[in-house]
Amino acid sequence: MQFRDLKKQYEALKGEMDQAMLEVAASSAYVMGPKVKEMENAFAEYVGVKHCIACNSGTDALLLALKAWGVQPGDAVFVPSFTFFASAEVIAMQGATPVFVDVDPDTFNIDIRDLIAKIERTIKARQLKPRAIIAVDLFGLPADFKMIRAVADRFGLYVLEDAAQGFGGRIGDRKACTFGDISTTSFFPAKPVGCYGDGGAVFTDNDEWAALIDSYHIHGKGSDRYDNVRIGMNSRMDSLQAAILLVKLKAFKDYELEEVNKVAARYTQLLHDVVKTPEIPQGFYSSWAQYTIQVANKEVRAKLQEALKAKDIPTAIYYPIPMHRQTAFNDLDMATNQCPVSDHLADRVLSLPIHPYLSEADQDLICNTITSHLLLTPHS
Ligand SMILES: *Cc1c(COP(=O)(O)O)cnc(C)c1O
């Protein structure tokens, strides 16, 4: 069994996909070809935002947003501790200081009370200038952007939505990638919409930032490619990846997003009496980048993983080390970065196989293995 069965997906899309890839091969427009513009337009239209700038990864997309805002040494950027490393890494790459915020134990997303507390403490300490909040749509579920926006307005901060895992999620009728002043996503193969390598995108309604990001992502270009007006990056999207993403977006819209939601609903129905299952707040819709359960403790989790592995069922721990405990951030003051819920989750979370092509038979095997193992093994 596969954790995320990309092979099954390729087989389902093969006819269209092979044609799309061969077309690019024959076109010889491998970099910045018309496919990239087409992809940017399709993705901007899908999420409902004015500008989409395609780039080389979700990490670069975050970095480009911070560059557009001129985030620099002496600035504080607030970011959840329970996330993938890149969400925090980009802050330090700009020379700014990440301030780690705890998360909600039910949604895995940024905790509003702790966010306010960490902002107020940073203002009081007078060492750093608060600039932005990076809110992550973890595991596919949009963060609580109504509250995040209220906090950002109160303290005069920018909101950056890290929707690397959140593409396709919604709050009411509004889609992920529209909640930030700038929003970003990743097209790494295992994300809700993935390409066949690395890729990412930046979304914004702001013309000025869009123009800056367009410049930064191609060597700080000015009016023409050899007129360089600022120090930028090489972070273009390949035409091949853009062509692949156009096929993927269509399948995602047509049935994949709906299918993965059916798989998630079935997991919850089969497992909610046995383990703590993920909670989706009223009015929210997830794109299920992960389906993550919580068990009693680290030992129970290790034994459960073993029992599943014995049946050839892969699982993963997202994330075993929260950001405030990462070696790379050793120089930060631990006392001001405490995140007890993130610590708690790191020992208890377990992500199960999920993707739109997971069969009911495989899902039954997973759920039966979990249920019989946990009911037959004594644990506290
Ligand atoms: C995957 C991921 C990223 C980085 O995306 P890449 O395309 O791998 O660079 C950033 N933030 C989160 C939350 C992610 O899951």
Summarize the structure.
The chain is α/β, with parallel strands linked by helices and 380 residues long. The chain is built from 11 helices and 12 strands.
Question: Which features would summarize this protein structure in a list?
Answer:
42% helix; 380 residues; Aspartate Aminotransferase, domain 1; alpha/beta; binds pyridoxal-5'-phosphate; 2 domains; three-stranded antiparallel beta sheet; Aspartate Aminotransferase, domain 2
Please identify the top-level CATH class of the largest domain: Alpha Beta
What small molecules does this complex bind? pyridoxal-5'-phosphate
Q: Into which percent range does the helicity of residues fall?
A: 40-55%
Mean pLDDT: 97
Name the shape in a single word.
Answer: globular
Low-pLDDT segments: none
Please, what is the oligomeric state? single chain
**Secondary-structure-derived class:** alpha/beta
Distance between the termini: 30 Å
- The CATH architecture name of the largest domain reads 3-Layer(aba) Sandwich
The total count of strands amounts to 12
CATH fold annotation of the largest domain: Aspartate Aminotransferase, domain 2
Q: List the secondary-structure elements in sequence, H or E.
A: HHEHEHEHEHEEEEEHHEEHHEH
Number of helices: 11
Cα-atom radius of gyration: 21 Å
Please report which band the strand proportion falls in: under 5%, 5-15%, 15-25%, 25-35%, 35-45% or over 45%: 5-15%
Kindly give the count of domains. 2
Largest beta sheet, briefly?
A: 7 strands, mixed
